[in-house]
Amino acid sequence: MSLFGKYPTANSSESKCKSARPLCALTYTLPLIASTAFAQTPTNIFDPAGTPAHDIFGLSMLVLSITLSIFLIVGGLLLYAVIRFRHRPTDTDREPAQIYGSNQIELSWTVIPILIVVTLFLTTTRVILGTEAIPKPASAMDVTVIGHQFWWEYRYPKLGVVTANELHVPISDPATPTPTYLTMSSADVSHSFWVPRLAGKMDVIPNRVNIMWIDPQKTGLYLGQCAQYCGTQHAKMLLRVYAQSPEDFAAWINQQKQLAQQDFSGNPAATEGQTVFMHNACINCHTISGTVATGRFGPDLTHLASRDTIASGPIPNTPENLRKWIDDPNSMKPGSLMPAMHLNDHDLDVITAYLTQLH
Amino acid sequence: MEAIDETTTPLQGRRPLNVIYEWITTVDHKKIGLMYIVYALIFLVIAGFEAILMRIQLAVPNNHFVSPQVFNQLFTMHGTTMVFFMGMPILFGVGNYLVPLMIGARDMAFPRLNAFSFWISAFAGLLLYFSYFGASGLYAAGSAPDVGWFAYAPLTSKAFSLGHSTDYWTLAVFLSGIGSIGTALNIVTTIVSMRCKGMKMSRMPLLVWLSLVMSGLVFVAVSPLTAAQIMLTLDRYLGAHFFDTQAGGSAVLWMHFFWIFGHPEVYVLVLPAFAFVNEIVPVFSRKAMFGYPAMVAASVAIGFISLSVWAHHMFTIGMGPAGNTFFVFATMVISVPTGIKIFNWLATIWGGKVIFAVPMIFCTGFLFQFLVAGLTGIMLSAAPFNWQLSGSYFVVAHFHYVLVGSIIFALFGAFYYWYPKVTGKMMSETLGKWHFWLFAIGFHLTFDFMHIPGLLGMPRRIYTYEAGRGWDTLNFIVGIGAIFQAAGTLVFVYNMVRSYYKGKDAGHDPWDAWTLEWSVPSPPPAYNFAIEPTVNSRRPLWDIKHPEDPDADYE
Amino acid sequence: MTTTASRIPIDGPIETPWTLPYRGNIGMACLILAESAIFIIFVVAYIYYIGKSLSGPTPAQILELPIFGTICLLSSSITVHLAVSALRKNNLRACTLNLAGTVLLGAIFLITTAREWYHLIHDEGLTIKTNLFGTTYYSLVGLHATHVVIGLIMLSLTLAFSLTGRVHEEHSEKLEVLSLYWHFVDAVWVVVFLVVYVIGR
Fold it and tell me: What is the pTM (predicted TM-score) of this model?
């Protein structure tokens, strides 16, 4: 009794699609790879700008070439098999030869993968040790990173600087490296520090200290964002790393070390704004060094006007935006932990005038 | 001699209330299996809808389609539903239906436990979705969980998760865990204690072997999650400090406990997919499975090794070189038995006469896609590479390649293969092909392109993203694919419903297959087998159909 | 026209008698495996947090070895074993007596635990909230005690059936399954005892 009359055999439309598959595969894999490799985007992991990211890039190219080869070989064999061994209408009713196994073949396809695994494992271990197990150079700079919901706090313990949301580091010359070591922990929930062009990510976890290092080799702004879900505004906890020449970095440090400007003679709005600020609940959450504002729950505002963005990256630091933020943070970053301060228009104007003077 | 009653009660003669009562009180493994499957399909559609909402929100940067709070609930509910209320139930349902039939048994070992496990899982799913109506109600997505499907501490502590969103997650998943353990217990006991005469362990169909391994994994995987959830609830309500970092507790401890569950869990989900492919590929290649003993050994090895790889989900938490290296090694090792399985499938097809009926088309898709999924898994296993890729859309693309590209494709194949047995009707081949192509195109549009934003630095679980990072167009394409997948799924549901009424009669054995379930009528009578079978080989029906060349001569 | 039964393979060489394990034992073994995994996680948490409490009483300061309770619980394993062997030999009276002994010894164990907890809470000020030691101690010992309670309920029901003459020799397999659970509960106590009262102090 022929069973092949019961359901359709491989018909021509299927075989056409299946033989076109390698072409389809090629025409869209290569552009995919190309677009990734050459995309000039600020967070491309395949565009490293520092040693850790560079080492990872090297390893990833090896891994990609091994996996691509496996894909082409095994995928190619599969494709060949489903085309070559199709049932054809001209076939007889006889079943094909029943083959139950073959020790030699099975042994070979056990041994070869084991060899591949060993190679990959050894290469991977070398990169792990090269990133995590190297001694810290004496010339390294230390920054303490503290993750908060939903902003980043940076402290430079040996340089006496505290700031927020914009990390400045000196570039590192490969001949005489000056990496920046980030000692990281969290004040609340788990976060993750990820600036793809500089290094792999490292989680920022409460009650735990994690250490990573970066060494950007070209000046510029490197972008990233928090990579561990930490609550409502996880998406807007952006990272901005400014790699500066040693001179520029020293100048920045000098500026940040200063106490906050307190004399605003010639700017009555700012003077009044300072008074309003110091008499409001602002001082419970924010620090402005040299004043009565010593709160640590929110970002340090001593040099707020020196930053390009507010709210940890998504909002440009302009007076209009700043005023709007202070009026109602949740209208710009819903879920932000800063409450609306319910200030009247006049107070908002003068506080904004004050804060925009804090260079 | 054949004094066996083959009549079935005609449906028309029975009152609706009687039918409902029969289904609610049934302990028959076939009916329970079907209830699991229908229940899971409903959740598939709901969770798929949640995915579409997310893709609309992410189609353009800084979109305002849903608020961040709602988005965070959507990805939590999508993940939790798909894993616990779609994946587990549907695979338990198919296993429930098939395992007794494949081993020549009349039912599962503990029929009432079977029913209990189903109903507690069903209740758990309803509880999870009731959360949408709690607190501020449906529009604001109520108290639906918003802590991510892995609910990391201390985000889930009372301090950072006010309200009950975490509690709905904890309780619903806890109850479904109890149901899972119950069903797994049933499957193991059935396989060990209720095989028909002559069916030694070495003669069981591979689907039965994989169900055994999967159930064993459930015992040692789901329990740690249950324990961790008890700890979390003690923290939240009795002031305990298991994960309270302010009191010296450890956030990392939750991660270890969760992933000790989480990694074997994904093997619990994928082993049944392997099982379906193991049954379908030989039948449609018209050849015995190549290397049955190696397939069994590989499956058991995968089960054991999967218990040792969990911290590859934690490469970024700073375990240090020793910890990282160990887990790199274990993860790379597991690729060896997994690869062996792919090669054995390839060798089964090789030299065969492949018939591309719809079940086989889906399994072919599985083979290519599982290969890719495994390879992206190898990429992720290299810890430094993982330091870039973890927590990004590359990981999301990888695991959807496994969950959708491999498991769902194999599951669709299984539906088309066993539907005739369950209902007595054939599904439409034409609609099946429409289903396949719509779904496959959608799958590739979504999940192929999804790898790239990950490589370009896009993290996961973000409700929106900045323009100018190169992610915009890619996210848009990903969203288009979702629509194709939805269309394919609708064609599938239509096919199932229509074929029930208008499909061709299937008879006992429409595919000319070789395992015991094809020896009983379609649908099987309540008692499964009129006479307890006796088997002498792995393919008892092959021996009957080919008495001149039985399997028993060779293995 | 072939009918149903003849499609089912029924012929074949007669192998050695086809016996498979009793499903009750397999089912209980699975349950024990799953429960062991749960207990192991609580034990791991306990061990991980040894010495990490930020404040409050430490185990060395306030824990005393619960020798009497332990002896009672471990003896109850012997009595339940005797109950099973008695039932296999159809010695219903011995079975009932041993079941009663098991329930009694288990109840004494629970009482000693209750008294210990009363002392710890009221005299030493240790609650689940106090510190990491309190959290891990009460949850681990409490989880075990819960399992003892469940076992005692099952054993008491069996005792009641036995007293009313409803338990017979053909139920010995089922009683054995229950006794497996009870042995498991005792084995867990051995581990808890070692980890909490010996190593942890």
Answer: 0.93
